[in-house]
């Protein structure tokens, strides 16, 4: 994290803005608009793109992935346009937390992968592109969204250091840890070989 130079009130403001943007339940909204029902009653009950895909609607899943990434990117880009670097990172973290713990859904949100990728892409396009490539390659080879997410998140703090963006290392490490925490059940299933593959109904 950069040195905190902004007034506390400014940091709180951008934390609130980031949280509110991140807490927009893209998947839930799209599922209702597109007549897919209550996403929280489908499949795993998660509000992310992987669970939307379990409805069989690939368009809805793609739009959810895009929307969840865009809200994370929007928080970063807005803060960057109006505030100092410390507020940008605060907004980024808050957007991720907003997706995972949205007030509108009683703090039961998604696992944050698309929002994580959107945040990183906005913070460092090269680092974000590498993270997305790791996710896409792993998903294509293993057909497991959770494994792809874990590898992409886990490597991102290393990637930002290697490409000369070390000032983002603590933030991306914190986000990666949160991604792993949100995927605790997936990690257990990966260890036992029972993790469902992309497109499965389970």
TrEMBL record:
GO terms for cellular component: plasma membrane. Keywords: Acyltransferase, Cell membrane, Lipid biosynthesis, Lipid metabolism, Membrane, Phospholipid biosynthesis, Phospholipid metabolism, Transferase, Transmembrane, Transmembrane helix. The keyword Cell membrane applies. It is an enzyme of class 2 (transferase). It is found in: Cell membrane. Pathway: Lipid metabolism; phospholipid metabolism. Its main location: membrane. One of its GO terms (molecular function) is acyl-phosphate glycerol-3-phosphate acyltransferase activity. One of its GO terms (biological process) is phospholipid biosynthetic process. The chain crosses the membrane at residues 12-31, 60-81, 87-105, 117-142, 154-181. It catalyses: an acyl phosphate + sn-glycerol 3-phosphate = a 1-acyl-sn-glycero-3-phosphate + phosphate. It holds the Pfam family G3P_acyltransf. Belongs to the PlsY family. Probably interacts with PlsX. Catalyzes the transfer of an acyl group from acyl-phosphate (acyl-PO(4)) to glycerol-3-phosphate (G3P) to form lysophosphatidic acid (LPA). This enzyme utilizes acyl-phosphate as fatty acyl donor, but not acyl-CoA or acyl-ACP. This is Glycerol-3-phosphate acyltransferase. It comes from Loktanella atrilutea. The gene is plsY.
